[in-house]
Amino acid sequence: MQPIASARVVDVVRDQLRSAILAGDLAPGSRLSVPELARQLGVSRSPVREAVLLLVGEGLAVEQSRRGVEVARLELGDVLELYELRISLESLAARHAAERMTNTDLVALRGVLDAQGAAAVGDARSFRELDLRFHEIVSQTCGNTRLARHAALLAREMRLAAPLMVNEPWHLRQSHEEHRTIERALRQRDGPAAENAMREHLGRVCQSVRNRHSTTP
Amino acid sequence: MQPIASARVVDVVRDQLRSAILAGDLAPGSRLSVPELARQLGVSRSPVREAVLLLVGEGLAVEQSRRGVEVARLELGDVLELYELRISLESLAARHAAERMTNTDLVALRGVLDAQGAAAVGDARSFRELDLRFHEIVSQTCGNTRLARHAALLAREMRLAAPLMVNEPWHLRQSHEEHRTIERALRQRDGPAAENAMREHLGRVCQSVRNRHSTTP
DNA sequence: TTCCTGCTTTCTACATGTAACACTCTCCCT
DNA sequence: AGGGAGAGTGTTACATGTAGAAAGCAGGAA
């Protein structure tokens, strides 16, 4: 059996807070009061304080000096910054993943895409979930552990901006097709093709977010 | 006067520990015992514990589950990972910096390069210091705050690998010339040229590190 | 010698105590 | 009515207490 070192309270609290933030239960701008959270979670303040600091390190929360920590509020500019970074990092990851992915990884990736193809019709929530899984698999199999870690951080931080995303069905379907193109390149072990496909995919999504908000400010 | 919010003990401790690590006073692999450090620094364990966790978040230390935290030990593979990321991020930063740098920034950059040109002869330590400043200025003026933050983290983490670096005078001189090329592109506001120059510069440095250690393992 | 066992020491992880500070609300003075 | 003092509340930041676990060491058996 694997090491179950996650019996640590701080890890549990961090995961719970992260889930609550990403699910929207803790809205952007909410103050994260350590004593209050400790009471609600039934633990002492120490692990809560640590967990909150870790979330700050992940970019999910921001601390203003002496006034405590609050859930990060992402503007359009932040999302564009994040996309720019994701384009750079994930296209690099895709290139390496094409050379280093195992067949098991490819099967998993195909599974995610098939599920996404089935869900793509109107269920934006499931679609986004599978989108995350797709990008996560590519990033985590690139062989560069630091690249994987930074990419995961960026992807998570971006989830805070869910309300700014474009959820039109045709747009989701287009994303799905682009995912298929990326997967094809990965399966053929064509690094440059995977890199380009990933860059174009994220670039197009970024552009659509930008258009969406420049026309309806 | 500006807000002197940095009277916080945790910030002071973090800076001291970081300096000690980067200066080599705390060698890679050293255990960071919270009670011991608290005694030495004359503060309680709480801020020390927080500071240590922050350093883990920065990649300067690693925690093995339940066995505490120790200063990160960078192998050749880690350095290559870091260079790959830096190439990706800093070349992107250079492109944007070309468009967004102020004239004041350019003057500062030129100043760093002139100092580097004067120091390049045999003083590898000063040279490296100015190398850091050069890359820092470019990254910090790119206009993308997250990109700047991630680039700064990578540059700092890489300082842990000082013993693996190549310090031959001809190599330093070559780096300096490449810096000049980058600066020229930035001054001419030529984004793509700055991007390419940065990518080639870091790529060459990375390659020289790789060669150095594949021939003398 | 090598291996096992039990003790000792130290640390981590969590809990709790507390001074100083920030915000809010009330009430009084002008 | 409007503005400001001041109490009251809640928080942060740091200090300290402590159970349990891990590492190191000693000593004895094979």
Automatic annotation (TrEMBL), chains A, B:
<dbReference type="GO" id="GO:0003700">
    <property type="term" value="F:DNA-binding transcription factor activity"/>
</dbReference>
<keyword id="KW-0238">DNA-binding</keyword>
<dbReference type="InterPro" id="IPR000524">
    <property type="entry name" value="Tscrpt_reg_HTH_GntR"/>
</dbReference>
<dbReference type="InterPro" id="IPR036390">
    <property type="entry name" value="WH_DNA-bd_sf"/>
</dbReference>
<dbReference type="InterPro" id="IPR008920">
    <property type="entry name" value="TF_FadR/GntR_C"/>
</dbReference>
<keyword id="KW-0804">Transcription</keyword>
<dbReference type="Pfam" id="PF00392">
    <property type="entry name" value="GntR"/>
</dbReference>
<feature type="domain" description="HTH gntR-type">
    <location>
        <begin position="7"/>
        <end position="74"/>
    </location>
</feature>
<dbReference type="GO" id="GO:0003677">
    <property type="term" value="F:DNA binding"/>
</dbReference>
<protein>
    <submittedName>
        <fullName>Transcriptional regulator, GntR family</fullName>
    </submittedName>
</protein>
<dbReference type="InterPro" id="IPR036388">
    <property type="entry name" value="WH-like_DNA-bd_sf"/>
</dbReference>
<dbReference type="InterPro" id="IPR011711">
    <property type="entry name" value="GntR_C"/>
</dbReference>
<dbReference type="Pfam" id="PF07729">
    <property type="entry name" value="FCD"/>
</dbReference>
<keyword id="KW-0805">Transcription regulation</keyword>
